[in-house]
Amino acid sequence: MRRAVLISLAALAAGATLVGCSDNNDSGPTPSTTPMPTTVPAAGPVLSTGESSIGQIVVNTDDMTVYAYDRDEPGTNASACDAVCLQMWPPVTSDTPKPEVLGVAGVIGTIPGPQGGNQVTVNGMPLYLFAGDPRPGSVAGQGMDNLWWALNPAGEKITNAPGG
After folding, report:
1. CA atoms of 30 and 86, how far apart (whole Å)
2. What counts of helices (H) and strands (E) characterise the chain?
3. Is the distance from CB of 68 to CB of 157 less than 8 angstroms?
4. pLDDT tens-digit profile of 69-113?
């Protein structure tokens, strides 16, 4: 009996909702014909500097360490990091080919990103994050496989310090 009452109440509520809907030409809001942007413009610098156990380093907008990969050839306009590599080393990207930076020297640019978009470069070297860095300032990827290096504010690889 209780179940039948609950079903009846649910049916009445649904019917009342449908009565308020109609196919007539009411003056309700009309949908916008302006397309929504597919990317949100970057707010502020894509790269800046931060503190770490190896000193001042280049970081992204979330203050995560960025790295250069020794297998990348500066100026080749392509990343040497393949699909498997990119799972652990995602590219640093920008929504513009001329990213804004703060406190980072060197020639800043972009190349076509391996997953689309613009991959940020410093001195022609594509930049990456390390998926194993647990928090801002972490440099767990530093020196990994003797191929991955954090950068100093001049945009140069730091190769004499262990990860941490």
Report:
1. 43
2. 2, 8
3. yes
4. 999 999 889 999 999 999 999 999 999 999 999 999 989 999 999
